[in-house]
Amino acid sequence: MVLPELKMRRDKIRVFMAQQHIDAALITCNVNLLYTCGQIISGYLYMPLHAPARIFVKRPNNITGELVHSIRKPEQIPDILIEDGLPFPQTLMLEGDELSYTEYNRLAFLFPEATVVNGTPLIRKARSVKTEIEIENFHRAGIAHAKAYGKIPSVYREGMTDSEFSIEIERLMRLEGCLGIFRIFGRNMEIFMGSVLTGDNATVPSPYDFALGGAGLDPSLPIGANGTLLEEGRSVMVDIGGNFNGYMSDMSRVYSIGRLDDKAYAAHQVCLDIQEKLIAMIKPGVNCETLYNTAIEMVTTAGFSDYFMGISQQAKFIGHGIGLEINEMPVIAPYVMQELEQGMVFALEPKIVLPGIGPVGVENSWIVTSMGVEKLTNFGEEIVDLKS
Amino acid sequence: MVLPELKMRRDKIRVFMAQQHIDAALITCNVNLLYTCGQIISGYLYMPLHAPARIFVKRPNNITGELVHSIRKPEQIPDILIEDGLPFPQTLMLEGDELSYTEYNRLAFLFPEATVVNGTPLIRKARSVKTEIEIENFHRAGIAHAKAYGKIPSVYREGMTDSEFSIEIERLMRLEGCLGIFRIFGRNMEIFMGSVLTGDNATVPSPYDFALGGAGLDPSLPIGANGTLLEEGRSVMVDIGGNFNGYMSDMSRVYSIGRLDDKAYAAHQVCLDIQEKLIAMIKPGVNCETLYNTAIEMVTTAGFSDYFMGISQQAKFIGHGIGLEINEMPVIAPYVMQELEQGMVFALEPKIVLPGIGPVGVENSWIVTSMGVEKLTNFGEEIVDLKS
Known about the structure:
Chains A, B: It is an enzyme of class 3 (hydrolase). By secondary structure, the first copy, chain A, is of the alpha+beta class. The first copy, chain A, is built from ten helices and 19 strands. Chain A folds into two domains: 3-127, Creatinase/prolidase N-terminal domain (Creatine Amidinohydrolase, Chain A, domain 1, 3-Layer(aba) Sandwich), CATH 3.40.350.10; 129-385, Creatinase/methionine aminopeptidase superfamily (Creatine Amidinohydrolase, Alpha-Beta Complex).
């Protein structure tokens, strides 16, 4: 990672720190270290507002540099700052939504005179607008994601279950370079690589706040495929996350086993229409709630509102920022007045679940440009019959 | 899940609560809900010391029962307790090592009169001794894990890289029923399904505190396979985690591409000898440090201490408890005076890394019985030549 890029990212955070009169940040969560240091370490980035940042590293033991200090424990940090003549912060920012209660207090105690504030929202705000290098990573991810999806029909075999189909698609993604790991913000959110949903399993509510649910294969992971046979007349939605370089691309496509009932194609078209309409609206300055409300109006007019984003339990969003985690800012949801900005990257996923058939709809990843949007996951969006 | 089992698990926690004069626990982290409720929900288990536990559930919306309350937010919990005439706790336990700082404070604020303490160590202590049903889950996991490993030679192709080999093994594990998700305690620990290490990549230190490292494919996940070709004369260690029912079985086996240098077989035998010696020692009452020190003495006598558990960065443990997370209590490490107890389940993984060759050694999962130990991952432990 080139240093000017890291300096730019750190300075994006510093702008918000200055607005809130925060003297220094101590950053230690993996995705935030990846963002500010270009790699994951076991350690800390100490970033004063008006002085160069320093890295305090526990592991690995092969990282060196002028402003890199090897430590065994965070309690060594204040002494090193004193040795180097650096002032202690008056207001220190820690990752309050991400650090455990125990660890937050341990780190806050390093600077007992400082006022300690939660820096997570501020770092997430900085991360929500991507740099050119981050956007280039997303371009590469979108291409690889689409390439893997292009091979999906080749791994379908008659008589497969949803989970067997998922396993073959996971392999395609991994062979295309997907790292597999699926990073999510929020300690109670978890999924393996994504979900493959067919038939009525798509109607099953889950404990997780994803767009759709599914029973999963075991009560220990109640999300996604549950071993349902891929049967004639059912749709199957593939929503496997892409993580080809740390940046999570998001893409869903729908397949069918033979011909579906006509209303499935009608519902699918409604989702494509919603996508088309919203994408035509999106440019810097458009707010998230407006987009959400437009989608709800369209799906209501079309008569599918009871099946939109689930049935018995409906997700209350139609899109979300993506980045180093699958759920970044902003969320395209009701009451979110946040405006889109150039450089934001987001997934838009209008989906309808039809009882007796399964899920239809689409999901793509997009970048907000100066004039509108650019699609990252370029690939056909029609329902593909796996039997043809 | 049968209720007597859940009652037993909850009462195991209550015993420790009583010792520490804790009136009630509010549990909301996924693995702890899985342990106490038999399934993952988005919600809370409120567990008084001397009254039946209650479930407050946000998602999914299809869980019902006499002591189940549907809520939108945790702030509703105190009002429901008042309505039902339940006293507020004087000392409340929250999951302080697992909840974020923000969420811990939000929950603590529900009971402003209560003294709030960190319950994570206590819950982990309860979880470290498994029930018969948990042990039965581990038995099934060990069998499935060994069955998948039995197919590993069949997916080897000449000219493969470590990551291509890993992808095929991941698929074997998934087809055998592995849920894929790899749960770890500690917010900075992460890995995909496990690691496949060959040649000098096994010498590369990582930021994560696993037994071995590896550079990984990308700075965003610096662990495990890095695209190294599986070459003649190199060993390859497969350490893919098993999660077939929520319980993480742990198993490593070593393969070779053709014949290895003699010292590889000698080092491998040292690891097998260490395993044999320690397993003969293990029974309830043996402490972890004694086991660790015995291993260090043996590997030192054999002349491999500089290569034990890594080279430039050596892991300071040789085994660890396993359960709903891969790293449960106890840790078999220096200065750990904790004694093993009947019902504990652990992984033992003496491993040696040889420059120019790769890793050798073994890892199995074991249950502490009344008299000794029982092996869960029954499978040949010799180095298997993939070319033969």
